[in-house]
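Key result, reporting period 2: structure in, sequence out.
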């Protein structure tokens, strides 16, 4: 399908993924998802879930299936897969191929933890995968791209933590995109049973920071009663990549989910995150930090769904924008009938470093229960000139002063994570992005 050239104020139809279409689904069992993908209409600017977005950027016509990784590239990417200093284990993927799996804790197997590549888990634990894999439908506009993911996913990480097991150190996974116009479809499935506890970090990176590519990622988090899961996704795809990121978190009774999405790379990112609070006493903290510059577009959509009474959710998204970067935030808090004594909060703050930067924020509430406390707010502003002058008067360059201010601005998000080692790693990524600028 060729891209239709329409009037400037009309919606453009993106090109279908012709080179992916020629291959079809990745495996025979994935035909229904492929058929669904081909049938779901392309998003348009008139769709409420795609409000503000440049849907013409969703052109998939140039991208190819994931290509094999040669030995030299494998060794290079393994050497570059450096996470935090101490972890319980690490998996490394490139172009949807498992390069390495290293368990640093011998206790994982002894405790009954299942930590496997997705394709191996399908063979050894099919019932577990089928019960939880993408069971929650994408409901924020990304249904077409969730179907594309389901039709093309080849590997990923399954982590099952049995009842009462606590994994003290984080588990890490690296997902690399290699080659011009390549594609990858990372998947992370975390199942934490009753009173289980775990922290997981996904790193999304491109081998070449200027290579065009497509990344379509999904992660599912399932928390049993009293479980605690911290999930961090650090995204630094190529500056020419198009990326989709779809998250579903299901929180049981007295469970606590904490998610943080750090967005630094891509030319256009569509991020969707939904928290289902299904058990009384459940809590979800939804955190995100974005550092966008040049012509990047970071489009974030969120949904906090309170389905049971006595639940809590707290969203904090902070965006730093420079040059002609654009961010979009559209978030809804919904309190279902009967979900009394809900406590929900939503805060979005945008720091504009340029007059050309654009931040669009649309928080919202939908309340169908009594005795609730729900608040939301969004603010946008520039750096205080007095603050900038104070730093520059002490011999700090304007660029360095801006960097310090941005770090301070984002620190609130990192501190909410309460993971110093991971926070330090995220700070390194932010520093590297500033260092790469003239």
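The corresponding designed sequence is given below.
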């Amino acid at each position: 399908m060729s891209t239709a050239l329409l009037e400037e104020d009309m919606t453009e139809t993106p090109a279908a993924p012709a080179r992916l279409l020629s291959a079809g689904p990745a495996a025979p069992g994935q035909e229904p998802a492929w058929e669904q993908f081909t049938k779901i209409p392309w998003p348009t600017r008139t769709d409420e879930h795609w409000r503000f977005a440049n849907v013409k950027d969703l052109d998939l016509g140039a991208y190819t299936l994931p290509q094999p990784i040669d030995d030299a590239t494998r060794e290079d990417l393994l050497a570059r897969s450096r996470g935090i200093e101490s972890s319980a284990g690490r998996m490394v993927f490139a172009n949807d191929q498992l390069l390495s799996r290293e368990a640093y804790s011998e206790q994982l197997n002894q405790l009954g933890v299942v930590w496997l590549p997705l394709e191996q888990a399908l063979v050894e634990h099919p019932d577990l995968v089928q019960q939880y894999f993408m069971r929650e439908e994408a409901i924020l506009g990304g249904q077409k791209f969730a179907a594309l993911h389901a039709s093309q996913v080849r590997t990923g990480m399954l982590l099952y933590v049995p009842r009462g097991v606590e994994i003290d150190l984080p588990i890490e996974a690296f997902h690399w995109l290699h080659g011009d116009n390549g594609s990858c479809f990372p998947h992370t499935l975390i199942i934490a049973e009753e009173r289980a506890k775990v922290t997981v970090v996904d790193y999304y990176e491109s081998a070449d920071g200027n290579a065009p590519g497509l990344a379509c990622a999904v992660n599912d988090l399932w928390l049993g009663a009293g479980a605690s899961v911290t999930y961090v996704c650090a995204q630094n795809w190529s500056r020419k990549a198009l990326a989709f990121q779809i998250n579903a978190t299901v929180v049981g009774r007295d469970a606590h989910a904490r998610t943080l999405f750090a967005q630094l790379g891509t030319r256009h990112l569509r991020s969707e995150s939904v928290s289902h609070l299904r058990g009384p006493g459940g809590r979800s903290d939804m955190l995100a930090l974005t550092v966008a510059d040049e012509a990047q577009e970071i489009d974030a959509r969120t949904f906090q769904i309170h389905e049971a009474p006595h639940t809590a959710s707290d969203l904090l998204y902070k965006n730093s924008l420079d040059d002609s970067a654009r961010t979009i935030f559209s978030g809804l808090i919904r309190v279902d009938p009967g979900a009394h004594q809900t406590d929900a909060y939503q805060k979005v703050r945008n720091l504009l470093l340029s007059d050309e930067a654009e931040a669009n924020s649309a928080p919202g509430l939908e309340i169908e229960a009594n005795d609730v406390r729900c608040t939301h707010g969004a603010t946008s502003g520039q750096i205080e000139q007095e603050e900038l002058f104070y730093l520059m008067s002490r011999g700090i360059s304007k660029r360095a002063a801006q960097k310090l201010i941005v770090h301070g601005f984002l620190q609130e998000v990192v501190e909410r994570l309460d993971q110093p080692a991971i926070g330090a790693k995220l700070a390194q990524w932010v520093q590297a992005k500033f260092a790469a600028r003239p």
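Residues 64-383 form one domain. The mean pLDDT is 92. This case is discussed further under Risks and Mitigation.
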